[in-house]
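User: quick one
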Amino acid sequence: MLLILLGVLILHVIILILLIVSTAATAWSVANSGGKDLWYQCSTNNGGYHCQPSSNEDWIQAVQALMILSVLFCFFSLIAFLYQLFRLVKGGRFFFTAIFQILASVFVMCGAIIYTVMCPKDDTYTHFGYAYVLAWVAFPLCLISGLIYIVLRKKE
Amino acid sequence: MLTFLALTSVALLGIVPEQSQAIVIYTGWERHALVGSDIRLSCSFFSWRWTSEDVTFSWTYRPDGSRDAISIFHYTGGAAYLDNKGPFRDRLEFVGNPGRRDGSILLKSLELSDNGTFTCDAKNPPDIVGRPSSVRLLVFEKVPIQAGVITGAIIGVVLGLLVLIVVIYYLMRFLVARRVFSLSVSKHGKKKKEGSQQRQGPVPPADPSKIKV
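Assistant: Done. Structure below.
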């Protein structure tokens, strides 16, 4: 039992780290000269590494909001898990934790989908970077973690 | 010590009135507008003196990327003189009230070439020392969305909904508990209702996993 709990907790923390790295790293779309992410477009020119703020279009702001919300909800579900671990009655299920975790996974999915559909594909050298991949990896992990919390019961 | 304080206060009293005689002019910092719309550029001033009859307002315009400023408006001696040769002919209107220290002008049918800096200079004789104030005009084809507005809105709405749901949940729990409590206290009277309620039995103290939503 303790092993399962520890495993679930470690998975949760890994998902949180993945989400934070994905939201913050400047590698959603990369080209040879630099990377773009939700916040800045950075490139290495002759003068060095320069960053300028991303365009203020609607879709990129929506993706920013969804990624931040998913990090927040994953964090809330971690807190709820620790709280329910000590306060739940025997035999109870971790509903709050599961709800927040599933919501976090939905937000990541929506954010990644919007970015995939709307990101400008005009540059032939641009391809998706590791932060984008991390977002897509975090989504099923988050969903699985949420489902595990639904099934998990507090035993003696 | 006392003489030192006295000297400094006298010196300060001597300096401050000189500065307070200056006129302070207020305009906006930056104005955004759409092509084809009208915009009101406001200008007002603060002066220690009463508003004199010889108060003057003048507006000058410097296009973006240019070094010269042209004069487009002047109010003096109770009459307003508008631009009748420059880029703003027939597009300017004086909507201010000099008696109320307001020297605002209205620009009509904005074009993209109207991007630039507008400077207002007001003089209230004998109070004429002051710095003119500038407002920058930005004309857009369509209004751009500022960074972070949509982001903040989405995050705010979702978190607000979350807080609302949690509050409602705890409120419902609290109300249910309270109703049971108040019914069991008032035993005499309303026996029929009590009979039907008592069949359900006393609800145990609520607990997040047991109460199923």
